[in-house]
Every structure is written in C-alpha cells, then in structure tokens.
Amino acid sequence: MNELYAWQDELWHRWIGLRARLPHAILLKGPQGIGKLDFAMNLARSLLCKKSLGSELACQDCASCRWFEQGTHPDFRLLLSGAQSIEMQESSETQVSLILKSWAKRIAEEALDEQQKKGKKPSKEISVHQVRTLANFINLSTHQGGHRVVLIHPAEAMNANAANALLKTLEEPPERMLIILVSHKPQQLLPTIVSRCLILVAPMPSLEASSNWLQQQKYADPVAMLAQAGFAPLLAARLAEEATGEGEYGLFLQEIKQPAKFDVFTLAEQLQRIEPFHVIHWLQQWCYDLGSAKLTGKVRYHPYLADLIKNLSSNIAIFDLLRYQNELITAKREALHPLNPKLLFESILLSYRHMMLGADR
Ligand SMILES: [Zn+2]
Question: How far apart are CA 151 and CA 132, in angstroms?
C-alpha cells in the first residue's frame, strides 16, 4: 500500500489539484474491491508527512510517516466497525496492508474484549460512541501543528445516530482537518452528509491493469477470477482466497500458533487447494515474526498476535529457526511446479513442528 495501484494515478492527480485548497470532507466512492481504502490511507499519510512536497506520496521516512506506519500517529483516526477490524487482522497481506492492520488492531481488541465480557457479537456498524470519541480529537490542537485526518470506512456502516453525530461535525468543520468518507454504497448515506463532501470517484481499473496486478500476486488465471468479481481486482483476490475454503489463512494461523497440538496431516490436506507459493509465504512471514520477537521483542506481520508470538519464540533455538527459514527459501523455489502440493505441505509443516518443539526433544 506504500505505492498507489497502477490505475489510481489520475485520481491521485485530481487529489493533488485539490490539496492547495483543502476541502473539509471528501467522499471517495466506487465499487468494492478496487483499492479505495488503500488510496485513502495514502492520501492521509501524505498529508501528514513532513517531507512530502504537496504532489508526492508520503516519504515513508520522517517521524510522521513512521508513526503512521506503526498505527500511532496522533493526528490521524480510523473508524471501522468491530467486525471489520477483526476480519482485517485475519486477512492475508495481499488483502490488508500491514499499516491498516496496525490501525485496526485497537478496534479489534476492543470488540473482542466486549465479546468476552458481555457476550456481544462484534458489531458490523460504526457506532455513535465511535463518532463521539472524535470530538476529543477534534477539540485538541494538532499534535504536529499540521493537519488532522479522520478516515471512515465504509461510511455506510455508520448507524443513524452515528451519521447524525458526524453531520454536526461537518456543519461546523474544524480548521485544518480533513474527513475522508470511503463508500461502496453512497446512496445509503444521508444526503445532508453527501452534500457537504467533495466527491472523488474512484475509477474501475481496466481489465489489463487488473490482470497485471493479479498476476503480480501470483494468481494463475486472472481473467476468470475477475469475471466472477465484477472485475474488481482486490475483491477477486479475496474471493479466490475464500472460495478455496473457509478462509484458509485464518485456519492456517489458528493451527500454526499451537505447534504442540496441531495435526500436520489434516492441515496439509486443508491447505492443498491453495497455491504452495502462498502457504510458504505465510510461513515465511510467521517465522520472520518469531525471529524478530525473539531478537528485538517486536513483530511485524502479526501485530495482533504479538504476545503469543513472543511466548512461542522464547522456546526456539535461533539456529533452528535460521535453518528452517533456509528450508522455506528452497521450498519456495520448487513450489512453482510442485509434483504434489500436499506432500510439500506435510514436509514443511513437519519441519516447522520439529523446530518449534525442538526445546522439548
Ligand atoms: Zn514522511
């Protein structure tokens, strides 16, 4: 997500044209699955960046960009429903960038906490409480003396009370503040909200641009995938991940995080419809986090599982981990034309368990 999608260049120029006279609110609308949220995140990050020259993407290097990357920038707020934030934590990186996962983490934790304490299912709505917490944010002066940005996704997830509370803010917009509403279904928004927004229409990518992007993600048959997804490339990738089962990535995480318990052969079977390349990539990210947690106490790809990963990593011998990571590199080279994906999965998962339980041998 650090880069724009190839089909968003023109939209970016449109935004740059607006930047000199910043509107108070933008409604970014278009079909689901074409990268609107990533675009909005790029927009927010570049506006907060200390080095971006007004026409460029965020530098990714200044203090502001680093805070943004870690999900801690004091001048940015992201509003999502509890259900969506949990879904994001369990999505693969093709679907949800690490930056988004960091920002969604706190909302997901709160939703899970509520679920545990009160037995409430994570809500699919953005609540009035969430919108009201913006009031504090709005009334504070900006931390960095620059802009403040609020991003609401998707805006139609706000329930009626939440929408009315937001309307009050839009009626008296604070200085140097930008509210970005991202919407797949703008017809469901209050007309009084829409009329206060400057509207940006996110373009549908061409078939060629979509196919190229899917090919880069190592999908073999992009055109057929796109046809099933209304030609929205990100949605096509998500459907492809889901169609192969009940979200294999979630299942993979579920099992892999309890190395003493999981059944290697069952998991290998459950994963066999996924491209081996992807499964090995998941394992590589998981091992990266194990190593990083062990050496620095930090994780990169699974911030949501940081504590658990730290616990797991304390039992691993770093030499075993390095050896396993080498094994994955070799497997990835061979994975482009595996004779039998299931056997390949069994082999790398057995090695994984061997490494994880090494301390108990
Ligand atoms: Zn920067």
Answer: 14
Same domain, 21 and 143: yes
| Rounded distance from Cα 303 to ligand 1 centre (Å) | 22
In this predicted structure, the answer to whether residue 246 has a pLDDT above a threshold of 70 is: no
Q: Cα 129 to chain center, whole Å?
A: 23
Residue 232 lies inside a defined structural domain of this protein: yes
Please give the tally of structural domains in the chain. Answer: 3
* Structural domain range at position 265: 244-360
Between the CA of 148 and the centroid of ligand 1 the distance, in Å, is: 15
| Alpha carbon of 155 to ligand 1 centroid (Å) | 27
What is 65-121 written as a DSSP string? HHHHHHT--TTEEEE--HHHHHHHHTS-TTTS-HHHHHHHHHHHHHHHHHHHHH-PP
Q: 0.85 cut: is pTM over it? A: no
CA of 46 to the centre of ligand 1 (A): 7
All residues at 6 or more sequence positions from 113 whose CB lies less than 8 Å from its CB, including other chains: none
In terms of average pLDDT, the best of 130-139, 147-156, 260-269 is 147-156
Q: Is residue 1 part of a domain?
A: no
Cis peptide before 186 (omega within 30 of 0): no
For residue 52, how far is its CA from the centre of ligand 1 (angstroms)? 6
Dump pLDDT digits (tens) for 37-72. 999 999 999 999 988 777 788 998 999 999 999 999
Contacting residues for 132 by C-beta, under 8 A, at least 6 apart: 165
Ligand 1 centroid to Cα of residue 64, in Å, is 6
Q: How far is the CA of 318 from the centre of ligand 1 (A)?
A: 34
Domain for residue 13, yes or no?
A: yes
How far apart are the CA of 146 and the centre of ligand 1, in A? 13
- Helix (H) / strand (E) element for 199: namely strand 198-201
User: What separation in Å is there between the alpha carbon of 12 and the centre of ligand 1?
Assistant: 17
